[in-house]
Amino acid sequence: MVWSGVGLPLECVAVPGVLLRTGDVLVEVELATVCGSDVHTARGHRPADKPLVLGHEQVGRIVAVAEQSYSANGMPLRMGQRVVWSVTVACGTCSRCRRGLPQKCHELAKYGHERMQRGWELSGGFATHVQVRAGTAIVVVDEQVPATVLAPASCATATVVAALGSASALVPLAGATVLVTGAGMLGVTACAMATDAGAVVVVSDPDAARRQLALAFGAAAVADPGAPYESPTGVASVLTALQRAGAAEPTIALELSGAGSAVQTALDLIGIGGVVVLVGSVSPGEAVLLDSESIVRRLVTVRGVHNYTPGDLAQAVTYLSGAWHRHPFSALVGRTFHLSQADAALALAATALHPRVGITSQQPATLG
């Protein structure tokens, strides 16, 4: 299903043939999920060349393999394997790839973001099949894990792994108090992962239903960023109450909403020697006041995370394979639409009623 511009319905386009090059695989899509960036692209909130096939969170099954095709851990790929794959295609040889930053490759291509072109028409998850190109991290996944759990691994879960890895390189998660701003798909995933790692997690979100969802994913407490400063439900008050009960001051903050006010909250409330990881700010927004003296005196580190490495994706799959029994990940996909109803899926995703909405060309009842 091809997007051709803001306000235009997605168009069904047939691809008569696929030429797999060395290292490519052809995957039949089992389930794709609609990421917020898909909605932003469709609504014109971010620049994109068109026409393009949206979708970069998906799980599927290999139906054709070119020679010399390997998974992220170096194992040969074969037909019939169930897989997820990275949002990015990297060259592996440029200066950024050699620095360990393949997600910022000089020759970067991204599934669901590139203009549809001859020879790579099947470049996004809103399709029956995706041509997964050489240079893409591919991870074989367990047959028993539901598709609704696995599809978001290719963006949301792997990004959270990268964010937590960036934070824990400076501050160990075990015993830390972690502030998570934003309780969408990334926020509740971060809440579960940090809690499982031994952290005390406080989640801030203006939506009451999302705050309740965060509690189901292990949050020790939730806060309303819209509450008056002195309110017991405000972010500062909730953090103070936890400290009085014996918790440490917040030394990790993960900003996952993209709201300027949330970025400001994270910078203002992080404790001595803490780290603020900014993830949600992927679109232009309001300016944020940076009090450089306060940053210096509190020994605060500010880091940015955008996309992830192949290792992050592999770790995300490993985590989900065990965590879906402990946390209600399978319930985060609120509704699944047939591929022909992709416009309706995008419209529902735009309401943020559900953390994720699914799209499939299969019968929904057959999904794992």
Provide a concise account of the structure shown:
By secondary structure, the protein is α/β, with parallel strands linked by helices. It is built from 11 helices and 16 strands.
Q: What is the helical fraction, as a range of percent?
A: 25-40%
CATH superfamily of the largest domain: Medium-chain alcohol dehydrogenases, catalytic domain
Cα-atom Rg, whole angstroms? 20 Å
CATH class descriptor of the largest domain: Alpha Beta
Q: What separation lies between the terminal Cα atoms? A: 23 Å
Order of helices and strands: EEHEEEHEEEHHEHEHEHEHEHEHEHE
Structural class: alpha/beta
The low-pLDDT segments are none
**How can the largest sheet be summarized?**
8 strands, mixed
The CATH architecture of the largest domain can be named as Alpha-Beta Complex
Query: How many structural domains are formed by the residues?
Result: 2
Overall 3D form = globular
The CATH topology label of the largest domain is Quinone Oxidoreductase, Chain A, domain 1
Mean pLDDT: 95
**Strand content of the residues, in percent?**
15-25%
The overall strand count is: 16
Number of helices: 11
Walk me through this protein's architecture.
- Residues 22-138 form the Alcohol dehydrogenase-like N-terminal domain.
- The chain is an alpha/beta fold and 368 residues long.
- The chain contains eleven helices and 16 strands.
- It has helices at residues 36-42, 95-98, 147-150, 156-168, 185-196, 208-216, 235-244, 260-269, 292-297, 310-323, 342-350, and strands at residues 2-3, 25-33, 52-53, 57-65, 82-89, 109-110, 129-132, 136-140, 177-181, 200-204, 221-223, 250-255, 275-278, 301-304, 333-338, 356-360.
- The strands form three sheets. Strands 2, 4, 5, 6, 7, 8, 15 and 16 form an eight-stranded mixed beta sheet that branches. The chain has a six-stranded parallel beta sheet with strand order 11-10-9-12-13-14, sandwiched between helices. A two-stranded antiparallel sheet has the order 1-3.
- The mean pLDDT is 95.
